[in-house]
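Supplementary material to the annual report.
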Amino acid sequence: MIIILKKQAEEAQINALKKEMTDQGLGIHESEGVNTRILGLVGDTSIVDMRHIMANSIVENVQRIQEPYKKANRKFHPNDTIVDVSGVKVGGGNFQVIAGPCSIETKEQITEVANDVKNSGAGLLRGGAFKPRTSPYSFQGLHGDGLKLLLEAKKATGLPVVTEIMDASHLPLFEDVDLIQVGARNMQNFELLKELGKIDKPILLKRGLAATIEEWLMSAEYIMAGGNENVILCERGIRTYETATRNTLDLSAIPVIKKKSHLPVMVDPSHATGIREMVEPLSLAAIAAGADGLMVEVHNNPAKALCDGPQSLTPEQFDSLMNKVNKTRQFFETL
Amino acid sequence: MIIILKKQAEEAQINALKKEMTDQGLGIHESEGVNTRILGLVGDTSIVDMRHIMANSIVENVQRIQEPYKKANRKFHPNDTIVDVSGVKVGGGNFQVIAGPCSIETKEQITEVANDVKNSGAGLLRGGAFKPRTSPYSFQGLHGDGLKLLLEAKKATGLPVVTEIMDASHLPLFEDVDLIQVGARNMQNFELLKELGKIDKPILLKRGLAATIEEWLMSAEYIMAGGNENVILCERGIRTYETATRNTLDLSAIPVIKKKSHLPVMVDPSHATGIREMVEPLSLAAIAAGADGLMVEVHNNPAKALCDGPQSLTPEQFDSLMNKVNKTRQFFETL
Amino acid sequence: MIIILKKQAEEAQINALKKEMTDQGLGIHESEGVNTRILGLVGDTSIVDMRHIMANSIVENVQRIQEPYKKANRKFHPNDTIVDVSGVKVGGGNFQVIAGPCSIETKEQITEVANDVKNSGAGLLRGGAFKPRTSPYSFQGLHGDGLKLLLEAKKATGLPVVTEIMDASHLPLFEDVDLIQVGARNMQNFELLKELGKIDKPILLKRGLAATIEEWLMSAEYIMAGGNENVILCERGIRTYETATRNTLDLSAIPVIKKKSHLPVMVDPSHATGIREMVEPLSLAAIAAGADGLMVEVHNNPAKALCDGPQSLTPEQFDSLMNKVNKTRQFFETL
Amino acid sequence: MIIILKKQAEEAQINALKKEMTDQGLGIHESEGVNTRILGLVGDTSIVDMRHIMANSIVENVQRIQEPYKKANRKFHPNDTIVDVSGVKVGGGNFQVIAGPCSIETKEQITEVANDVKNSGAGLLRGGAFKPRTSPYSFQGLHGDGLKLLLEAKKATGLPVVTEIMDASHLPLFEDVDLIQVGARNMQNFELLKELGKIDKPILLKRGLAATIEEWLMSAEYIMAGGNENVILCERGIRTYETATRNTLDLSAIPVIKKKSHLPVMVDPSHATGIREMVEPLSLAAIAAGADGLMVEVHNNPAKALCDGPQSLTPEQFDSLMNKVNKTRQFFETL
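Predicted assembly:
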């Protein structure tokens, strides 16, 4: 971390600031230019609050050199993390497809879709029981009853299940869920993240709608700092001015994450685009960019889906997608 | 709501879609162009899920004509809502300034600041006990102990208090809090919003970092739909590509909200800019744009503040600000 | 186009508006809801200025149903356009890689790079002579002298050349250039677009930093409306709040363009990311998403490059990239 | 400027880089941390191309400490610049309102509006003859004929005139124009900026749709570096995800500019919002934030305006606005 001091800073003030830093166990290297005097902090600066230093009246600017995350940082953990989801591995060369409906609606629906996506080669089943909806008047999910139906589909197919949690108080209901999803709108619900740091179940952490990659990794750090290092990231599009797609899928985030972190990263082209016919090209592009998996919405009757029908594939479309996904995976493995 | 059908839609499919709509109690007006056939829905379309209709294979596009919010809509509630916060009124011509430190740190700190801001004319005292911080290694607030100190400062000064809630399970601790703040990162924490809809305490709902004005009003609608209509909105800057300020304060939101909704709307220039010297010009601009109040961070020793020091005013700076705020308010009242 | 009228609109005013529309040769279909009355315009609405209608005091809102572009619209031109650049075809299954340095610096540099990229399989040579630089103190390009060097490299290798124009007055210098590039910052330099519409040389139109896909197609329409239909689009990243990459590459734009337009679309991963090591994964992702070509920066000595060194590949890196690009192309052709 | 070196950088490479810097007349201060070695550059770094240094394989990162602009920088020019537009002063306490129609349409229209806005107290007359329109099918302005009509209105009223230039080749037509406007879409049309740097006429430089404040000041620097220091900045809204207004007016830019630069800065609430009724509250807010002037669209018959009718005020509305603007100005002058 580099502290740029104001020209008019007095020696006594500078010494006080330096003492404050060394009291935190940091070393200091000074350098002086014509117009600027600079303090370089040496040591573990992830604990230092930049804005606290900015508040000092003699400070012109503060710039971070080291990343503010440690546990999620590839520098301190060079090997890819492989997350084990009830026997299904994600990361470090293990590619998985999570598939299923946006919402769990009926026993027939979730079981039928579960069987279909399993037969097509999906490794995990998704289905929402708690649904974050913009409108209070939209379908909010079946809650506990939905989770029960999801677990029945798990039993029927043997597929590990993934579903979203919206509040830490619901955790007891998630005991038999294999991978707990934190949705984009809760990426900075820090109370929830802290609670998920205390359990040992894998977490699928979606990127927030307006989160930088650094903020996203900091949210992973919240979970990991609590002791739970089983975090899978999931890029799902960010908010931009473009309206042709629901969000703007940021595939550059894949190589960025791969460089900065050891955590696996998946891509959700269904939510990113909101448009069924765009799921295939962007799924294949995600594989080409190096993603560790995909999350795809599949519904046995999209036109009747209680949520996100426009982006859901039919089981036939998903089967065709999986065929291409598998071939594409094999191709890139040997490229 | 207008449904634009695909050219090749068949009569049987169209009839099925029409039946689905009339079954929801909606009327339908049809119109046919050269290339397009349009169904106009008549009735309460706030309950209709646009994306559900989009999922129908014969639908080209769906466009909303009416706003999706009802209780927050000025059309159905032409008069300004006045929210009563333990006797302090906000909205409908009642202007208030909320002031205090970002975080409650010590008894001396919060009580001293409370006295100072009261003497300068603040109507409500703010102070954070639960702090949403990007990094798990930053100060997270004093939690329950912080709330106790805040309530002591309330007792000492008589100022109603405002503080942020981060999880519905903490609600019992907020019993004596006068105005409960929902922070930007929780604006779409729908489980929290639903719980706040069940209580009768006023809620200060900050705009999310990447929330449209419509989404913000829909979050207010969540609280109001539950029965709690005491919602005050607070603009605090949105995320853009500009980095000269922490966020981009969207003052246009004030006249937009005033047109679309009857709810009071305040402005937080401290968080929006993140820079102390910008608080004054943007506070005055917020008044000129029609805001119903301001939320300003004040700390007795900004350089030692445990959070957000760079944007905190000293009590002296706040006193000078209040002097100008009051004169500006009077000026615009008579303009 | 749909015009939603205000409730209180009077019959005489409505009739005046209807006359204004029918005078432009448009038909009108009316529909009436409980709260709204709607006029649907029938005919060629691409000539209608929505905001002109919005200015009418009886109009509540106007929504476009048909796209505002005609010549660039796939609806009226279902087959892929194939642009012939001096014998090198782009689009309709013809994939090309444009490669070369950001700036033309010396005869040796451009000729050496030209030979290298030709040997690796590039179809076109790029090199900038007029450089749009944020700072007036940065290298601005060699201008006419640079173009001469580029044409020498063309002669030496036989590769058609691509270079950016920054002002219509420079057109005489571009006589022997095979493909004229309009840069992101000039995508809405309408005077330039109009001039390029009058010539018969192919144009490479880069997407503006903050341009929607629709605005980008409207800029193509400017060129095409003038008579020059040889337009190749090039996605090069858009401006968002994310700072980990120089811009955010919007690969979703590829399938969107493919659906809405018949024009070929290439991808420039070098400018989009600004980071050398990200060029390969995003090049492959662009192919997977359906791009008709790539534009890649190559320099024989990136560390000494006068511009954009951090994103330039060495000729060796480019050769390795082309090897993968070719295999990936073949794979997706048969998928 | 600070160069952060990679851990594995070798001494010989570091020395080569240091020599490259000292050869440019820069001094170097080194500092070494546990994980990082830092070179601090001392001297005029505005000429240094950060990305050129980034391209060096031993460089981890480069961060700028000093602003990249000099002539526009308040550090080197502490007093406010006052721009004299044919006797009408802008900046340094001189507040002006530019008013007039979006487009010049007829002699009657422009002269009538000119008289009206003069009577209401406008200091300058605006009117577009060259119009940047998204669609080639929209009205493009009257060009040379329009300029003639504008100059007749100038003669009739004595008001200095402001109009937009879209191409440097049109400059001869602008000889009698008092203030030449560079529109948002041309803010980075560097060839145009360079030409405007060679003349001695004042320039009104609008902020680009996606331009950072720093890029905006760099565009001013282009003009100033050429010798023309008569630049007035104009904030007109930036592109964000919010769609309730046409753009998002960034009033924070006013105090930021005031701190960083000595140039006057005006605000255009008409283009920023695109909505007539929002012009007044945001005009007053702009004054409160410290703007040096306003640019407001006025049309004698907005419903018939050939462009931007929805945001144009009638002369009566403008008169009412001016009344409030004058009072607000006086109020803030004495606050």
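The mean pLDDT of chain A is 94.
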